[in-house]
Structure formats: C-alpha cells, structure tokens
Amino acid sequence: MNHSKPADLGIAAKVVANATPHETESEVGKHNLFSLFQACFPVDKSRIFLETESGREISFAELEATIACYVGLIRSLQVAPGERVAVQVEKSAEALMLYLACLAAGVVYLPLNSAYRESEVAYFLDDAEPRIFVHSPRDEAWAQPLCEKLFIAHRFTMNEAGRGSWAKNAINAAPVNEVVSRNADDLAAILYTSGTTGRSKGAMITHLNLSSNARTLHQYWGFKAGDVLLHVLPLFHVHGLFVAAHTALLNAGQGGRMLFHAKFDAKAALASMAGATIFMGVPTMYTRLLAEPGFNANMCSKMRLFVSGSAPLLAETFNEFRLRTGHTILERYGMTETGMITSNPFLAERKGGTVGLPLPGVAVRVTAADGENESTVLAAGAIGHIQVKGDNVLLGYWRMPEKNLEEFTSDKFFKTGDMGFIDADGYLSIVGRSKDLVISGGYNIYPKEVELVIDDLPGVAESAVIGLPHGDFGEAVVAVVVKKLPNAGIGELSGPGLESGLEIAIIQACQQKLANFKVPKKVFVVAELPRNAMGKVQKSELRKRYLASFD
Ligand code: MLC
Ligand code: AMP
Fold this sequence. Notes:
The protein is α/β, with parallel strands linked by helices. The protein is built from 16 helices and 25 strands. A hairpin with a 4-residue loop joins strand 1 and strand 2. The site of adenosine monophosphate has 19 residues, from strand 13, strand 19 and strand 20.
C-alpha cells in the first residue's frame, strides 16, 4: 500500500482546478442524488419500475426495500461516506440497486467494466483503495488474493442473476432507509478513463455533476408520462449508468419505467421495441439493428426517441435509419469527465453529422490551441480544440493534482481532447481528436496501454497501435509491430506464415492482460515504423496504409 497517497477525499478535493463553491447555506447537505431520484418515485410503490428480459418485474417497493438492505450492509461494515466501493459485476437489476445504495449511503461508487482483466483491476483497486470490492464469482481465484494483498477489507460476489454473497449478507443486514446528506461537491463516483501515457485516471464525479446533467437531459429530451426506456447498454460506463438509468429514474414519477436487457442483442432489442418509447445506444447498436432484415417502422410504432452517442454516428447510418424507420436519430456528445456536453434538439432540427447544441447550463467553446492560445475562441466554422465548463464537469482527477492543472485551462475550461467546429447555427461537429484514442463499439482504447503490453514481449522491438475503420465497431484496434531480430526486414506479413508465431504471442499476451475490446483484431509485422523528422511515429501514415483492412 502506498502511504504517500493523500488519505482522504478532502485533500483530493482541495487540489482540483475547478472547485467552486456551488451551494447556498440552505442547500448544504441536500445534494444526495439518490434523494433527487427518490423524490420522483410514485406514491403507489406497487408500480413497476424495471422489467427484465425474462419478465421479472421490480416494483418501487422492492427497489426501495432492497436498497435499504444494501445500505444497511454498507453501514454494518462501517464503511463511511466518502470511502470507495468498487464493483465489477455483470449487468443485473441488483447491480443497479447496488449503485443506488452506494449513492444513498454516501459512499463513492467505482464501477469497473466486467471485461477488465486481473492486472487492469489491480491498478484501479490499488489506486482507489476501496473498502469493499464486489466482483463476479467467476473471478474468485484472483480477486481473493488481490484483495488480501491490497488490504481491501470486504469482498463479496454478485453473479449475472444478482445472486451471491452480497445479496445473502444484505438480507441479514438491518435495513437503513436514511439517505446520507451530501454536498454538491461530494463525490458520487470515480470512473477510470485511460490516459495517453497508458496510466488510467480516476475521474471524480460529484453529486452535482450527475444531478445537473440528469435533470438537463430529462427535460431537453422531452421525457413524458409513461415513457418506457429500452435499456441495453452496459451499466459500468457513463452512457448506460448515468445517461440512460438516471433519466429513467427521474421519469419514475410520470409512470416511467425500464425494459432492462442484460446485454445488447439486436434481435432481442427488436422484440422489446414494440413495448418501448425511448432507446439509447452506441452507433454499433444502430448498425446492428439495421442489419436485421425485418427492422422497419412498424416494429417501432410506439418509439418516440432514438439517442446515439459515445462514438461518431456515420451519415449513412443516420440516413438509412431515417429511411427504414421514419425516425431521426438524436445524436449527442459527452465524456466520462463531463457527462453530456451537447445534444441535437428534441424538437428543433437534428442535423446529421453534428452532435448538436451546447446543453443548457453547459458552456462549450472551440479554441485555437492547447498551451499559450488555449483560451482564444475561434470564429464559427473554424476547427479547433473543444473545451467545456459547467456543473457537469468533473471535480478533478483522483490523486493526480498535476492532471488537474494540465486538463483545465487557466480560466477553468476542461480540455476534452476532441477537435471540432461550431457552425453558424451553433451546432458542434466533431472532426477528430488531439488525443491518441481509438473508439471501438463505444469503448475507448488508449493505444499506449496496448503498446506497453506488446512492447513488453521478448520478440518485439516496438509497436504502434492504431484504429482503423470497421463496419461493425466503427473503429477496430490494429497493432503494427517491428520484430526484435536484426533480420526482421521482411516486409509486411499477416495471417499464417513466417510471422504468425509472433502474432499469436501478441494476441495471447493482450488477451491475458487487457479487456477483450482492447485486443488487436489484426497484427501487421513490418520492418520499420514510419517516422517524421522529429523521430515521432507517424500513425496517420499507418492508418492510410492499412485503411481498407476490414473492407
Ligand atoms: C465486444 N468486442 C469488441 C467490442 N465489444 N471489440 C471491439 N470493440 C467493442 N466495443 C469483442 C468481443 O469481446 C468479441 O471478441 C468480439 O469483439 C465480438 O463480440 P460481440 O459478441 O460481437 O460483441 P458484443 O458482446 O455484442 O458487444 C458489442 C457491443 C458492446 C457494441 C454491444 O461493445 C457494447 O455494449 N458497447 C457499448 C459500450 C458503451 O457503453 N460505451 C459507452 C462509454 S461512455 P472475442 O475475441 O471474444 O471473440 C462514453 C461517454 C459517452 O463513451 O459519450 O457516452
Ligand atoms: P469516454 O472517455 O469513454 O467517456 O469517451 C468520451 C469520448 O467519446 C469523447 O471525448 C469523444 O471523443 C467520444 N464521443 C462521445 N460521443 C460522441 C459522438 N456523438 N460523436 C463522436 N465522438 C463522441
């Protein structure tokens, strides 16, 4: 355990670049996001909030009773508000209730993608120092020694049906209905995002960040009485957990509910669509829906809104969707660090190829450059760096004061790392990224993280990981690798052949150490990597060279 880390949240919070006093005296302690949701729950608690694919129905009464037991368990373990609870489980109603219980108990929720491998999880747990780790029973063999090594006090399991030692212990805990008071800038969650250096950063997300964004989206997207959200996204990232679940929770008072699918499956989603009014997905989900021959306007006759985000939506998907269904997909733009930033309007024109207008209360600007001119705002139409400011923007990075300085401008705008322009009507378009990032099926992959794993292999001199256009995932991860042997100059080979041993070793190492979506879908072995005059690897050159690899 690294004892040089700041010991408590207060210290971490004080070093942030954008900490502003958000509260009036009368508001102090009244910012727990769970209280906001609970205030929206209907008087008739027998009403159903969530229905799973198998037809299991969860009423508000069950939701509240389960959450009370979970809060009771957290309290009985003497985990104090502000301490972290890390959760790496498959999606289930119980996983959602565990998140809500963490909010209610005032502890900081740390969701982890269920695809993360042991070494990835080890980093997050070591960095965040949670008091509780809830994991899949499948990972018992490594989770148990890891928790011991990191002195994580409490470890529980939860399987894809929501069962396991967490649920068993919670049943025996004395239920606690009290919601812990929280201030606007108290942490609700820490979400790790990878970094360009390969080291992940914990984005500290406050109760105010989440409540302000949720309220805005609920209103901006015109949620109304009786809306049914078809929830197919994972529960461990912003899109599924905050955007989708939060807006549905805020709609609970108006008879809103969710159809909850454990995973996205195009056929299953279509089967449920007849009973739904709102769908949120990443572009891959839309291309997969369109790939279903029977998908047409009749199948979504009750649908009012299709939202897309997390990755660029291709013009052809936007257009074909409109032709096939009569619905214009509403594209919005956001980040883990900021929640949602812009959105196409619900009522006014939804412009394809743009991510819409700044959301109410969110300031967005496009500036000349990072560094000296980082606050020089560009005219409409000019491409530059996208920056954002508002109650939605993270408090700072967990125990990384240097990142807080780097990632915010001197006038407290957050640098998104995305490049774009704002048109004369105020709509933002994203045209690229200044950060070296691949987005595959809505998941972010930082090439550096994959390169570090590949470069560690004995047969590898160096590697460059890039994203290439991919029909299903939008972009796919590809590794271009130089062999260590002096006689490696044998041109480009892939597939079975001379280099296949190295390729297999690379794929295996990545599978062992990285989540499956980060594993390269192709490996090219080359004599050398193209470099510019400064010696920097020219990834744009590699992207051009291998552009059509997935055609
Ligand atoms: C799965 N695979 C992926 C992948 N998902 N590879 C690359 N990119 C992905 N996104 C791997 C699988 O492990 C498998 O590999 C192979 O690809 C085929 O898998 P599949 O069965 O076709 O994939 P599936 O399980 O159906 O998953 C696809 C998906 C999923 C699109 C449903 O990736 C998904 O749910 N994406 C949503 C991500 C998301 O929620 N992003 C929001 C982040 S928040 P193998 O080797 O095992 O065969 C954010 C902010 C914002 O970005 O603005 O919202
Ligand atoms: P994450 O760190 O996973 O939250 O991913 C955030 C990144 O996803 C942003 O910085 C963008 O690069 C990208 N992103 C999100 N929404 C969109 C969108 N609608 N179009 C293009 N890129 C998007």
